[in-house]
Amino acid sequence: MRLATYNVEWFASLFDQKDNLINDNSWSGRYDVKKRDQIAALGHVFQTLDADAIMIIEAPNSGGTQSSKAALETFAKRFKLRQNTAIVGFENDTQQEIALLYDPTKMEVTHDPQGVESGETGSRIAPRFDSVFKIDLDTDAEADTVTFSKPPLELALKPFDGPIIRLIGVHAKSKAPHGARTREEEVRISIANRRKQLAQCIWLRQRIDDHLAAGDELLVMGDFNDGPGLDEYEKLFGQSGVEIVLGVNKPASETLFDPHASTLLAPRSARPTTARFYNHKTKTYLNALLDYIMISPKLRSQTQPTWKIWHPFDHPQCFSDKTMCDALLTASDHFPVTIDLNFPPKG
């Protein structure tokens, strides 16, 4: 079974208010990319991935007259994708939903949020992801309250040829200092954003601990806007959010695994990347590892998984396929990550 995570930049801008594709030559949300070209590129990428299910980060908007589920299923129908059924959890107001597009002939999927709904004062014990988390991350001895602008998508996935898997789709807080006008503002906003991002990761880790204690098969995937050694502010807090979610200081039986994150934790190792952003100030591209698929120890031992970052330049198969290479560059500023799980035969 192949599962994928894919952050699609400005997917929402490709649909009208009735969830129909805007397949014309108007500009998409992507810089210097027309809607028609981005739609075609995305169709080719989804077809080539041939995944049984794709966790879509920044999925089309829900709210008003729009439905992320309807938009994704319209997109799937346009390109005759076998992943033609979409499921969305708690909707948000950012125009960037988290959704799973999957092949219904291969699995059953249900939205299955965990935790209890907290009040406005929050809860220190991982509440439901659309609620409020209470935590103290600074030195004022007073608890702060934290929310997710994009609540993680919690799913129970039942493959027809394997065990039930708990799946959590994540789009963690960005640490970028948007709106900063001075160096002082940049530092202040960056630290505040990292504090919130870490709090979200601690909240997520509490949920992971619950699943592992229950013996659940677990995958956590998505865009964490973070990684070991990604910025200088990490030193103020001791760990990156990704390390917290992985549980790097915990016993092996409680540690999630992602091979690409592991390379960043090892000295002098090659640094894989999953995203490529254009810096308008330096006129160069910035590459970063932001997207992960983390697996629980038991599921890893049972399935002998393999991962792949579909990078247009770093993966030889993608680079040698010019059509796919161009499609990946046109479709999004992130690249898909896949995991292939090999379930042992039944009986």
Structural notes for this entry:
With 347 residues, this protein is α+β, with helices and mostly antiparallel strands. The protein has one domain: 4-Layer Sandwich (Deoxyribonuclease I, Chain A), CATH 3.60.10. Helix content is 28%, strand content 22%. It has 9 helices and 15 strands. The protein has helices at residues 35-49, 68-78, 183-213, 234-237, 241-246, 259-265, 297-303, 316-320, 322-331, and strands at 2-7, 53-59, 85-88, 97-102, 107-111, 133-135, 144-146, 153-159, 165-171, 217-223, 275-279, 284-288, 291-295, 306-309, 337-340. The strands form 4 sheets. It has a 6-stranded mixed β-sheet, covered by helices on one side. Strands 5-8-9-10-13 form a 5-stranded mixed β-sheet. Strands 6-7 form a two-stranded antiparallel ribbon. Strand 6 (133-135) and strand 7 (144-146) form a beta hairpin. Helix 1 packs across helix 9 (322-331). The longest helix has 31 residues, at 183-213. It is globular, with a radius of gyration of 20 Å. The model has no long low-confidence stretch (mean pLDDT 91).
Sheet-strand content, in percent, reads 15-25%
Taking strands numbered 1, 2, ... along the chain, how are they ordered across the largest sheet?
Answer: 3-4-2-1-15-14
CATH class, anyone?
Answer: Alpha Beta
CATH topology: Deoxyribonuclease I, Chain A
Q: Please indicate the count of domains.
A: 1
Number of strands: 15
Structural class: alpha+beta
Give the termini separation. 18 Å
Q: In this structure, how is the largest beta sheet organized?
A: 6 strands, mixed
SS summary, helix count: 9
Cα-based radius of gyration, to the nearest Å: 20 Å
Q: What would you give as the CATH superfamily?
A: Endonuclease/exonuclease/phosphatase
Q: Name the assembly state.
A: single chain
- The CATH architecture comes to 4-Layer Sandwich
Helix and strand pattern = EHEHEEEEEEEHEHHHEEEHEHHE
Kindly report the average pLDDT value.
91
Low-confidence stretches: none
- Helix amount, in percent? 25-40%
Q: Which shape, going by the Cα principal axes?
A: globular
